[in-house]
């Protein structure tokens, strides 16, 4: 398990450092039971002062705003803090960003099965809109980082659609000493903010990456919806 986590840390460190330097179809499932219009949220976010967005994003979404299976750590410290650390994005690593926040969530084992699991939402805020070119460069950077992976690792970087909006999907699968793991990261530009939903699951048996993807999609959309709520409150 330790080696598995160290490989994850290495791979995602390489991927994120190279991809965030520029500041298929998924069926979305959001616990509050409403459709999320990413295009409408994007317009609202672009009309909001980025500093006001950062003020609001410092506070994580409430449990009621998270998809089924995720909740804020009751103790204030994530149950799998060593895993979470590998998937947070520190502001010092971001070129052109004015701020970022990472919020980690514990998981309900009856919903997200596995020996270990965790969810993270990263918000990266820049002064202007994330463009198609920015997303292309993010995709290229992530692909380059993935190429640096070691034995037992496989993965891919793909362009997908989330609620009608373009996003980048990073998939990594690992196996070491009988421990299997899958990570799904969705990077979704929403106006001046890049919303990144990450779900990691490890188990003693094979982990279905498609199931992990469903959880990552739900977490990403919930993160975008929360961003929209903050933009609306700031207007």
Short description:
The protein has 235 residues and is α+β, with helices and mostly antiparallel strands.
Descriptive overview:
With 235 residues, the protein is an alpha+beta fold. It has one domain (2-24, 36-234). It is built from 6 helices and 8 strands. It has helices at 2-19, 38-46, 50-57, 81-84, 132-146, 209-234, and strands spanning 25-26, 70-71, 97-107, 116-126, 153-162, 165-176, 179-190, 193-203. The protein has an 8-stranded mixed beta sheet with strand order 1-5-6-7-8-4-3-2. Strand 3 and strand 4 (116-126) form a beta hairpin. Helix 1 (2-19) runs antiparallel to helix 5. The longest helix has 26 residues, at 209-234.
Residue fraction in strands: 25-35%
Sequence of strands across the biggest β-sheet? 1-5-6-7-8-4-3-2
Mean pLDDT: 80
Provide the low-confidence segments as ranges.
1-10, 21-34
Number of helices: 6
Largest sheet: 8 strands, mixed
Order of helices and strands: HEHHEHEEHEEEEH
Rg on CA atoms, Å:
16 Å
Provide the structure class: alpha+beta
- Percent range for helical residues? 25-40%
Number of strands: 8
Using brief descriptors, characterize the structure shown.
alpha+beta; 8-stranded mixed beta sheet; 8 strands
């Amino acid at each position: 398990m330790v080696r598995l986590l160290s490989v994850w840390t290495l791979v995602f460190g390489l991927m994120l450092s190279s991809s965030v330097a520029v500041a298929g179809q998924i069926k979305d499932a959001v616990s509050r039971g409403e459709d999320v219009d990413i295009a409408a949220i994007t317009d609202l976010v672009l009309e909001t002062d980025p500093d006001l967005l950062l003020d609001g994003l410092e506070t994580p979404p409430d449990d009621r705003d998270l998809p089924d299976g995720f909740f804020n750590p009751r103790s204030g410290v994530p149950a799998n803090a060593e895993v979470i650390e590998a998937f947070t994005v520190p502001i010092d690593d971001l070129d052109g960003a004015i701020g970022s926040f990472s919020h980690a969530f514990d998981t309900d084992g009856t919903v997200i099965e596995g020996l270990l699991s965790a969810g993270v939402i990263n918000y990266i805020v820049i002064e202007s809109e994330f463009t198609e070119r920015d997303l292309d460069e993010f995709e290229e950077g992530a692909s380059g980082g993935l190429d640096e992976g070691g034995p037992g690792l496989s993965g891919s970087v793909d362009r997908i659609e989330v609620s009608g909006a373009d996003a980048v999907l990073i998939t990594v699968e690992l196996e070491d000493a009988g421990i299997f793991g899958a990570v799904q990261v969705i990077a979704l530009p929403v106006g001046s903010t890049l919303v990144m939903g990450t779900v990691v699951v490890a188990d003693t048996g094979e982990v279905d990456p498609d199931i992990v993807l469903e959880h990552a999609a739900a977490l990403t959309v919930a993160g975008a919806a929360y961003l929209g709520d903050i933009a609306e409150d700031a207007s």
